[in-house]
């Protein structure tokens, strides 16, 4: 489901970015701005940039898309001359919740200032926060990031440098995290030992410096060359002396990257753990064709997220690939008023069938996921209205039925169409002639890389790390947790 | 060239829309809003909605996209209960000029009020305007539409009804026009005898009423069924008695529809003169493959406008179709500061190569047009940087070299890369291994419909109607023409 | 009643301004901007600036205050180098009506372009407009100004120059008008033969040029010296040759300036017809003290509009002048939600009593008008709540009971507290110990200048010019008149 | 100097407000909104509201005026049903500095959540912060308020309730502070033992609850009755059981209220320590007349801040009081471009002389302060240009020459005209015929209340509390202090 088509689907939590150029020749504001544009798909709720000019940290962050937050005036007001910078995007508002945790978070502590960017979710955040509060700490928001910041600060008091503090903090925190931390003099990247979320290293031309980013597409956006992924459990430090690594937490846990990064979240042009995301999706389509062969006249994908797998299915099956839909590229935030009938037509504003492609045809329709099922049902109805004789609907992922504790915002299980329903029951809602999902076995072969495994918890309920026994929402009584959701406070 | 990728390309002038529901059951505000969204690709500079509630005309129009102009608050402020409405989108700002001619234009005259929507360009507007001014008329703006409105008004004084006034006005005006006019009681569509610009008729369900729109995709957006195209020279009236037609101007000139509607302007899901635009583009790709066969490993298109023809090329040539680029779907109005190097990277923000598709491959690259050549050159360079061994660049239209006088905003001839250059000279700028255009002969066969011909003036310099001997800019001295370009005045 | 305190009081229609500097040394944008600030009290609904750079007219106008419409960005976008410019402010929105007639109106006609600024109301506008429409004219809005523009244009065809066209147009139009008209080469001021609305002439230093303005405070704002008022019926032309006058319409009617200019509309620092407005208000207070002597301890005024008359009353009566209220200077456009009780407190947000001034005192309270009576009643209650023993309320104008046809927007007669009520009945609503108005006889002596008389039609129902027998609203049926009230159309 | 006339004058730090209504009948959003409007003069940089709905704290705060931050939409989004609320306004941006410390600050700690509002300045903030950081605390901003919040939190861990934590915190902090603190169940006010800044208690009607506010004008705005001032050193608790007081810090230091509250900061209708501010200013004018008698024809004040003292001078001297200036009430944030000459005219936009009042007169001009002298010089020149024969300029305060460490933002000493200059030297810059200041002796008699003394440190350099030996700016090196000044971060 493309997030422009289905507003209440899955959400990635965040994208992080950091850049260090010892020569000072890179226009840091433009670079982070370009990188955040490239990472915008990882989070549309808020974004921010932090800059380090001669050791002074400052920046800007706000709710909104990069293009909305970083207006011409805001960009002009940002300081020039930085040699280091970080940026962050956060996920889109999930209806009732508005969070107050825009990043990078700039903090002052005994050793100076620090900007923290975080992608992921800790499973022991609530426990750590309760402990910190019992020793007198105060919290401005409700995010894990503030917990990490406190631990970094307190560990910094006990260690000779920030990288040691990062490493020691990794002893305390459990779960998924890809961090980029900027201090007066250093830019540091760290990734949890399971490597749930991607994080990679790029090099600026002519040895000028280094870049850290959630996805390699952000390296391309700033003209940096891909070097390698940050290893699970690794701490990488970029400073005036170049790049160093601390690997004390490496190989302490199985590498279980989130499979949804390949299926859904990441941009097709990114490489994660050696595999191009576009290729993984083509492969998912090929596997689908093997698992669900069907007689048909044309294979189409739901734009944009189903197109790659549709091409793979067409290639494997020999059925011609066609363009079945036109997506309205101007639809951003529509406001449709009025009757239920009118609201139902909102899919029609965003998506229209190219009837000449499907009329009187047996159609194979490919998408990458079904969330609530209502949008899929409408799309299939659109095809039938346009004259499709048959609609065979295949999904390039297994049905997801369990919550994610590692950085993906999946709607409540009760809203997921696959929860507690058989394939037949799901299809009664969807209304396809045939409905098929990709098997978990095939999904695990997408990356074709032997050196790491996948977390498929959302499909199987089996998680690499024990899920939290308490959430922030439970630990902190209603007053507390809600009080953090004020728009600006 | 997709307009999100190349800001200074070709521009369609406008999209028009009108709807009449005698039952009053359609939510007119939502309907026009949805239709304008579907027509947004025809004009991004300004838009407007006019409503007729019990014979009272009112509305809202402003500079900006539909989503920008029609905010929640503006939509709520629009009157409810209309049985008739019109809407309009205008083309994107071409650099230095900001025009003050947002539509629908609501005017008061002796017989009441009237809302006028216009797509096209008159060739005798300057002459008509001078004549009107000499008899005491005053003009608030510089558009042809105001000239048409005066003629309608004056002819209305001499004729028993508005449709006769429209017909008589068509005696006076020459050139390209698709009009939608709303009065107290009638909704009228009219199309010039050459049928330069598309205009079609739809029917609301259950005989509730009728819809006029520049493209059939707007009918789909409001749930109307396609009835037929308005015939060149026809005047169609929708009112309480149903649909009537005046055909006195039909068949008075050859039907010469603008070929660029198929190649570039119209949405792929629209049907124009019986041909699906997507099919015409697939066909363009097939013709390209016939004209320019080449040994290659993959066919890719420049998103989004070159994708259809790329698929057609792949189909005809047997070379596999691939996805070569990812287009950043969040890029709207970027603001890139800084150095020349940085500005050059703006293509990289909008477009990134999926390197696994092209690396070490011989690539066929398809686009629908080359305007200045600079963007094409950069895109080819991106492919080479990503490891493409060869890049064969084919364009699904002939080189355009002449101005358009019928509603397309083509940059000054001096800026067009094809003007005065041989194919080889163009390719020196573009940098492809092979460069090829679609022939004019093939372009004329795209619609596969015998009942009409194409205007190919921009490729050949041969126009169906004599171009104007004077433009508005020439007739009215600099002070006058410029004084109309103030942003709001 | 200060308009910040009572949102639904009286409204001046407009303020006009024009400036011509043959040396080109005045920064025209800054000058008009400053002048409009000085005239802002004459109209808060919309404003605009038109500039003439080498004969080219352009500008900007919009709904809002000068500070809102002319943002830094808008000011920077206006062209530099003008030698001539005009500006205009229009009155504040009166509840349900939003008008579409922002000025200066820039128009194109056979002889070039023209910017028109108008303050006043024609009594024969409806008749003239109907006649123009019957000959084929079209109207974009509903204002008198568009009627005047048509007449100017048509008369321009019949006369050798614009000033003759202005003079001839004055033969046709009846009622109140102060006009400033800018053409390619001339700046022209004209005032109706009755001189209802003020209009004065200023001179730039060193003979550089001339200024026309509704009030002399705008001359001060641009550093121009006051020369004289434009005479009733006079046409004054400023161009490269200096200043010329056409007096053919002078002395054709009695000079009957609107008395409310002195009492309410004009700024205290302006001079109108030789009298300082502040002095006229002091005098009104002195007259009030003569008409309504009372035993009291302190005289206070309702800020800001009642303060001058309160000082005059104190001076004449010998009762000490005190500061009774503090007006919140930050209150602009408040938005008070909630209960009726809360809404009633909106006066309390804007105005608070300085209780030490009035506690246990017999208070004389002065204001310049009572419109609906509700605000006056609340203010008196505030004083009693603060401990005032007695409140004697005197108004520095007679009760107004009749409509104005000459440029003042008085609420519907049914809403006026004085309509059809005796003094006692009014005071039952107001709740003062004593209530008194200034007599019509005294109001006529405010200017102390023998050369002109006052229009006191709103107090007496006797008008210098016969009121219109039909209004725009009547002539044009509801559809037509309403269709002009769309926010932007 | 009115802050609308002189943008770079003195600035109050803040205004605080809290309200508790056990009945829940007060519309809390409207109440705080009204109160912040009444306190807007105490701070124009930022503002905020915090609400307590059933123990849940939430709110909104941002840069801007109350009318800008609390738009209709923001107000509608705030939760309803609160029984407790606090509000805060902060001072206007002083040029280069933009601070990130909007309040109320909502914080989470081990015992729940807490909203903190603070007016004042601690002299030992830097020392306390350094100590906190050394034990692992992190800071998001640079304000004293965050230091106070940490101390409250840590003391809360050691004490049985919040009021004890407040009291214990008062052992640690030194300087000026008026605090309003809201927890889940209590609203608490506290004032430093010197009582530098005002803070008063009001009662809602019918015993429904209590209000705390910096000034009594905010009580009037919400319809609360004045009860008394919070005593220096007192902690007052409002909760479901009513009002309680802790007086352990009372009478531990001399009461030295800031004299500038009477002269400049507070609103004339407020009562502080039993004295009406308006009366204090009248008295200052009377003292001025005693100290600086002069032969003159009229006494005028610089609006708005000099008007009260001018009236007092007139009363004492017997010289008539006149209105010398009209202040443009529409001038908010002007943007004047262009030449130096034009910029100098900015005073003329804001202020114009009523020439009839001063022409050919000997004028006494009263203002409440001179900061840089440039504005005063221009105002005197305006009077001379308008024909004043003599201008005798008296200031209703002593020359201020020393910094304030207790909550007033005085420009750098180098910018103060009185620093290091004799009266004659100052007058060479000002250009009056006579220049006189109010003596320190008289200023100390303004309140006429024996129970407290004044802090006159800014006039004398003698402070009731030893000034800080280090400022935040010094303690925290440049990187740290600057990194907190980012606009949003």
Short description:
The first copy, chain A, is of the alpha+beta class and 489 residues long. The first copy, chain A, has 19 helices and 25 strands. In chain A, the strands form seven sheets. Chain A has a seven-stranded antiparallel sheet with strand order 4-3-5-2-11-10-12.
Indicate the topology.
4 copies of one chain form a homotetramer.
Chain A: E1 11-12, E2 14-21, H1 28-39, E3 46-53, E4 56-63, H2 66-69, H3 72-77, E5 84-90, E6 105-109, E7 112-122, H4 125-134, H5 144-158, H6 162-172, E8 175-182, E9 187-191, E10 200-203, E11 209-213, H7 216-221, E12 225-229, E13 235-239, E14 242-246, E15 256-258, H8 260-265, E16 271-272, E17 275-276, H9 277-291, E18 298-301, H10 307-317, E19 325-327, H11 340-344, H12 346-350, E20 351-353, H13 355-358, E21 362-367, H14 374-385, E22 390-395, E23 408-409, H15 423-430, E24 434-437, H16 440-443, E25 453-455, H17 457-460, H18 472-475, H19 478-483
Parallel strand pairs in A: 15-25, 18-21, 21-22, 22-24
Antiparallel strand pairs in A: 1-23, 2-5, 2-11, 3-4, 3-5, 6-7, 7-8, 8-9, 9-13, 10-11, 10-12, 13-14, 16-17, 19-20
Helix pairs in contact in A: 5-6, 9-10
């Amino acid at each position: 489901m493309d997030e422009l088509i289905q507003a209440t689907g899955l959400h990635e939590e965040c994208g992080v970015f950091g850049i260090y150029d010892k020569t000072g020749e890179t226009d840091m504001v433009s670079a982070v701005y370009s990188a955040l544009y490239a990472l915008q798909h990882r989070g549309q709720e808020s974004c921010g940039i932090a800059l380090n000019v001669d050791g002074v940290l400052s920046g800007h962050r706000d709710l909104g898309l990069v293009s909305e937050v970083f207006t011409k005036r805001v960009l002009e007001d940002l300081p020039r001359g930085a040699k280091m910078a970080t940026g962050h995007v956060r996920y889109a508002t999930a209806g009732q919740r508005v969070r107050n945790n825009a990043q990078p978070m700039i903090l002052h502590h005994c050793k100076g200032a620090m900007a923290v960017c975080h992608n992921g979710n800790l499973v022991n955040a609530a426990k750590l926060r309760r402990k910190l509060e019992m020793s007198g700490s105060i919290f401005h928001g409700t995010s894990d990031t503030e917990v990490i910041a406190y631990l970094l600060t307190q560990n910094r008091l006990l260690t000779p440098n920030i990288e040691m503090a990062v490493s020691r903090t990794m002893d305390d925190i459990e779960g998924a995290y890809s961090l980029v931390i900027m201090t007066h003099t250093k830019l540091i990247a760290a990734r949890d030992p399971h490597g749930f979320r991607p994080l990679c290293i790029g090099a600026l031309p002519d040895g000028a410096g280094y870049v850290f980013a959630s996805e390699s597409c952000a390296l391309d956006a700033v003209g940096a060359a891909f070097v390698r992924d940050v290893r699970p459990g690794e701490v990488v430090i970029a400073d005036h002396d170049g790049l160093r690594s601390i690997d004390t937490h490496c190989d302490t846990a199985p590498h279980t990257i989130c499979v949804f990064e390949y299926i859904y979240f990441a941009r097709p042009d990114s490489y994660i753990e050696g595999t191009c995301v576009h290729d993984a999706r083509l492969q998912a389509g090929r596997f689908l064709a093997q698992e669900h062969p069907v007689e048909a006249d044309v294979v189409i994908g739901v734009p944009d997220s189903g197109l790659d797998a549709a091409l793979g299915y067409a290639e494997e099956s020999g059925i011609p690939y066609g363009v079945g839909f036109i997506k309205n590229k101007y639809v951003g935030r529509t406001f449709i008023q009025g009757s239920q009938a009118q609201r139902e037509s909102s899919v029609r504003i965003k998506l229209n069938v190219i009837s000449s492609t499907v009329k009187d045809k047996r159609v194979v329709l490919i998408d990458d996921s079904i969330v609530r099922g209502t949008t899929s049902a409408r799309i299939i109805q659109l095809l039938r209205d346009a004259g499709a004789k048959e609609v065979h609907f295949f999904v390039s992922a297994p049905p997801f039925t369990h919550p994610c504790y590692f950085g993906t915002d999946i709607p409540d299980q009760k809203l997921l169409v696959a929860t507690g329903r058989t394939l037949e029951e799901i299809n009664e809602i969807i209304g396809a002639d045939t409905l098929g999902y990709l098997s978990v076995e095939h999904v695990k072969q997408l990356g074709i890389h032997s050196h790491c495994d996948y977390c498929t918890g959302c499909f199987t309920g089996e998680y690499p790390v024990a899920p939290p026994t308490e959430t922030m929402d439970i630990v902190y009584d209603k007053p507390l947790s809600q009080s953090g959701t004020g728009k600006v406070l």
